[in-house]
Amino acid sequence: MQEHKREQANVANVQRAVAFFIQADLSRLLARLCDKYLELGQVGGQIVLENSTPQERREIASFLGKPPSTNQALKVRLSDMDNALRHSGFACTLPELLAAFFPASAMITRPQRRAAQAAHQQEFLDALDVIRAALPEASRGYAWLTKGTHGREWLVSRYKNAGSEVQEQQLKLISYVARILDQLPGSDSPQRLALFAQQTSGDPHMLDPNRAAGRLLLLALGDLSHTPLKPGLNREDILRLYLEVGLQVDTISSTVVVFNLDSASFHGGTPDPMIAAAGQRILPLTLRQLWEWSSVQAAAMDIYIIENPQVFEEVIDNLPNNIQPPTIICTAGWPSVAALTLLDKLIATSPDYQLHYSGDFDLKGLQIAAYFLARYPGHFIPWHIDPAAYMTALQASGVAAPSGELAQLDTLPAIFAPLVATLQAHKQWAYQEGIAHLLTSFT
Predict the structure, then answer these.
(1) Which structural domain range is residue 8 located in?
(2) 89 and 134 inside one domain
(3) Mean pLDDT over residues 373-377, rounded?
(4) Which residues contact 392 (CB under 8 A, 6 or more apart)?
(5) Residue 397, helix vs strand vs coil
């Protein structure tokens, strides 16, 4: 009973203090005091009430029992305010006053927030360690979480400050991915990705590369293969990782178009009659078809690669009558997995093949050329990718090149330096259509 009465009296005292500060028009002072208290987590330090009014200075001086200050930048110590409240008729503390004056504000101090945040982070870390501890130490899941680039340390740094609901969702995904790493079918008994996802989660789309679990699986596979994926997963990397662990995906969407292949053989050594039947015709090939071949032969040692589909057709339609047509491949932009697979198989069949590439005179076209140069060293030859061909294309048409993209040309290999200098001098892109007539000469 006595305790209840004391609580009631304290509430009444605090409310009288609130009424006093409202009547004295000192809400601005209390707002600054509240900020300082929450910052420090205790009654300490001082605030400066900038541009204080004569009335504010009088009321504060009267409350503190001090003579009024003439300085508009009025300094007030929190301990003085607390002592005055305790020993006045209000008999309350400064924190009690602030909590009552700002009822809509959660009076959580910065140290309390830091402590709560640290506890929140530790809970996520502990939950992650529980997942890891439940795995056999020899398992892939344990190895990934312990040593993977995107394992325990990365996951903690990424999700330690996320909300509880997000953390809970991520922990479920992490547990799922860590568990299925040791259920992967393997290359000896491959299984389709959607069926594996259905079997392990009940959702055939759970491991799609654009889903959270699918992205996490790919990161884990990259860690375990010791070739962590670069930002922005590309299809070639994805297919490589799936292939290593026996997961099969759609192999008919990735295609490449080729003209005049000489021959191709299945893994048993039997020639594919489709190539002979196609003859000198344009042939679209799927990645599935290419994977069925053990080797591919081109019509000659010089293989020509054209980036633009319409230029590819234009060149084929205007082939000179006095030459034996070479093998010509169209990438239709950045080379697909199918295009790269075809080129890989050609180079594997004969190391003497030379790849001549022609593309647009812009940043993307030259980046493709640089990619081929890096992927096929000793086999790549720029084909009409030089200042003279650029000037010819520019006479046909050109468009202004963004300065930012022009600057990026400086990152290209030195072999392109003369062309880069010419491009940066003219500040215009030009396109492959403008040199289509040059490409029919195959020189």
Answers:
(1) 2-107
(2) no
(3) 95
(4) 434, 435, 438
(5) coil
The neighbour count for residue 141, using CB atoms within 10 Å, is 26
pTM for the model stands at 0.63
- Phi and psi angles of residue 388, each rounded to the nearest 5 degrees, phi first: -65, -45
The per-residue pLDDT for range 289-337, each reduced to its tens digit, is: 998 999 999 999 999 999 999 999 999 999 988 889 999 999 999 998 8
Mean pLDDT, rounded, of the chain: 91
- Tokens at residue 100, please? 């009552």
Compute the distance between CA of residue 217 and CA of residue 224 in angstroms, rounded to an integer: 10
Query: Which residues neighbour 181 within 8 Å (Cβ) at sequence distance 6 or greater?
Result: 139, 140, 141, 144, 217, 220, 224
The answer to whether residues 124 and 210 belong to one domain is yes
Residue 247 CA to residue 256 CA, distance in Å, equals 22
Q: How confident is the model at residue 4 (pLDDT cuts 50, 70, 90)?
A: low
Cα–Cα distance list, 25 to 28, 31, 59, 80, 98 (Å): 8, 12, 9, 19, 15
**Which whole number is the average pLDDT over 93-119?**
83
Angle, CA 430 vertex, CA 424 and CA 434 arms, to 5°: 145
Give me the amino acid identity at 125: L
| Rounded distance between C-alpha atoms, residue 260 and residue 323, angstroms | 13
Same domain, 264 and 384: yes
